[in-house]
Amino acid sequence: MFEDVLRSLASGEITIQEAEEKILSKFFEKTDELMLDMERDKRQGFPEIVFALGKTKEQTIAAVEKFLERKGIAFVSGLDEEKKRELKDRFSDYVIKEAGRLVVLKRENTTLEKLNGKVGVITAGTSDVPFAEETSLILEELGVSVQKVYDAGVAGIHRSFYALSKTKDSDLLIVFAGMEGILPSLIASLTDLPVIAVPTPVGYGFGGEGLGALSTMLQTCVPGLVVVNIGNTVGAAAAAVRILRRIRKDGQASENKRSY
C-alpha cells in the first residue's frame, strides 16, 4: 500500500512532509469540511457510516460521492425525507436500498467481504421496526444472515418466548424496545447468547422518547446485557459485527489447529 511512497522518499523524489501527506491520503479523502475515513472497514472491520443529521445537503452529497468513487458503496444514516430525495435523484444510476432513515447506495455488482454469521433481530413493538430495519440492512449488506421477529413485546409474553425460539440458532441477538424497555432483559435472562439492547424513542409522557427504555436497560439485573444509546441502530450493527468477526477468527484458529 505504501511501497511507491517509500521508494519515492528513499530516492529523494519527495520530501518527508510530502510522504506523510501521501500516506495520509491513502486513509482519508479530504475536502474543506470533510475528512472521510476510507479504510475504517479494514482497520475496524466496519465501514464509516455518513451521519447526515446536522450536515447540509451539499456536504452529504459530497461525502457520498467520495465513498462511491473510492469504495463503490456508501452508507448514510440520519436522513430526513428531503435529503433522502436529493440522494435518490442525484444517484439514480446506482443501486439504492433504504430502511428507516438509512440509505445504502452502491455501484452495480459491488460486493463487500462476506461476513459469515447469523443475527436474530427482535422488536418489542411494531413502532420499533424502522429502527430494527436500519440495523438489519447494514448487517445484510455486510453479508450477515438476519432472522427477524417483530412485535414480540412482553404485553403478550408468549410472543417473547416465540421470538426467542425462532432466533435460538443465531450467533447473537439484537433486541429493540421503547416504552418501558423490558424485553431485552427478559430475552437475555433466558439465553446464553450475547444480547445487544437498543432503546427506541417510542413512548409518551414521563420517560417517553426512549428515556424510560434506556433507564430500564441500563438498570437491568441481567449480567452482560450490552446497551447502546437511544436509537443507535448503527452502533448496534457495529457491535454485532465486532462479535461476529471475533467468532469467525476463533473458529478459523480452531480449524487451523485441527489441521496440524
TrEMBL record:
Domain of life: Bacteria
A GO term for molecular function: hydrolase activity
A Pfam family annotated for this UniProt entry: AIRC
InterPro entries per UniProt: P2CMN_synthase_LarB, PurE_dom
SMART domains: AIRC
Occurrences of domain PurE (ranges): 117-249
Signal peptide coordinates: none
GO biological process: 'de novo' IMP biosynthetic process
Gene3D superfamilies linked: 3.40.50.1970
SUPFAM superfamilies given in the database record: N5-CAIR mutase (phosphoribosylaminoimidazole carboxylase, PurE)
PANTHER family noted in UniProt: PHOSPHORIBOSYLAMINOIMIDAZOLE CARBOXYLASE-RELATED, SLL1489 PROTEIN
Protein's name according to its UniProt entry: 1-(5-phosphoribosyl)-5-amino-4-imidazole-carboxylate (AIR) carboxylase
Organism: Thermotoga petrophila
